[in-house]
Amino acid sequence: MTHPLIRTIHRIGIRSLMLLSFLFLLGTGAAQAQTVPCGTTTWDLTAGQTTNVGSVTVSNDLDNLYVTYTLTHPTATFGTLHLWVGNDLLSLPKAGNGAPIPGQFPYHHDAAGATSYTFTVPFTDLLIQDANGACGTPLYVVTHAEVDMDGLPGGDHETAFGGPTAGSGPRWWFYGIYTVCCDFGPPPVEACATAYGKGGYVFTTDRKSNPESLPSLALTRNRWGWAIKLTGIGTTTYDLWAGAGLNNTANGVKVGTVTVVWDGSEATVTYTITASGYHLKETHVYAGDNAPATIAPGQYGNTGYLFGYESTASYTVPLVDANGGGVWIVAHAVVCR
């Protein structure tokens, strides 16, 4: 005789059972919303010992520490960034003369040409289970940056450190002390929307969702979105529109820009949020010799997830015009406020 539970499983189906299991996890707290980052601390980012070129901001949520480098100097851009975090400066990688060795720091990123970047450091990397187990714990944070003062790689090059406290040794460096915060407040309620860089081609075939009578790639009847076609190398900038249903910008909000730099062999696609209160949550970039064959952003091949409330993101992808007919870009994003 078949057990009643087995009969129930067959009746509701495996997929339904999986859905019920997921809902059960939500109800028991196994899947929780991200906590609000708290404890924000900001220090000067100093180049060449005396020049303030920007800032370093540190915060945390339950699971991660966030360290954001930002340049405010009008002509400066980043080179490589290095980060070390620990509970004792004796563990900081140093040379025999006591000077820190940024190249041996555990976190590094090639931010060439960028003016902002956020490192996400899981507390587990610091042997801390989560912030609740480390409330009030001081962490030493050493932030090093290569800065090109004229914005040109290999140009007027300076070393920069963030923090208010001078380190010891024969060479100058700075560091800061950040106190782990546990006062997260209620989970954030984010309002998110899909966004596209406004190119000259639409996906839709429906006349009502093509108010500007742009050429169509005929990929969908009325789902909105735009594609960009490049026929020559150089730099071009497009408005980034969120929530522009039916490809009508009157329905949406211009939240920023998308800048594309193409040199014939690769393209750099940079999202910049300019609308107050908005930040990037996800990015999806299509770059190809042929026009896109899908409107599904997850199939574009270049996906980024951003959890540090970033206002900019940049991606460099190979892109060659092999057929002589130009190349294609789709710049999709999820933006929240």
Structure description:
The protein has 337 residues and is mainly beta. The protein is 7% helix and 45% strand. The strands form 2 sheets. Strands 11, 12, 13, 14, 15, 16, 17, 18, 19, 20 and 21 form an 11-stranded mixed sheet that branches. A hairpin with a 3-residue loop joins strand 1 (38-47) and strand 2. The radius of gyration is 24 Å and the shape is globular. The termini are far apart.
- Major sheet: 11 strands, mixed
Q: Globular, elongated, flat, extended or rod-shaped: what is the shape?
A: globular
Helix fraction? under 10%
Beta content comes to 35-45%
Number of strand elements: 21
**Which structural class do the helices and strands define?**
mainly beta
Overall pLDDT confidence: 87
Q: Unreliable runs, pLDDT <50, ≥5 residues?
A: 1-34
Evaluate the radius of gyration: 24 Å
* First and last CA, distance: 56 Å
Number of H/I helices: 2
Q: What is the domain tally? A: 2
Order of helices and strands: HHEEEEEEEEEEEEEEEEEEEEE
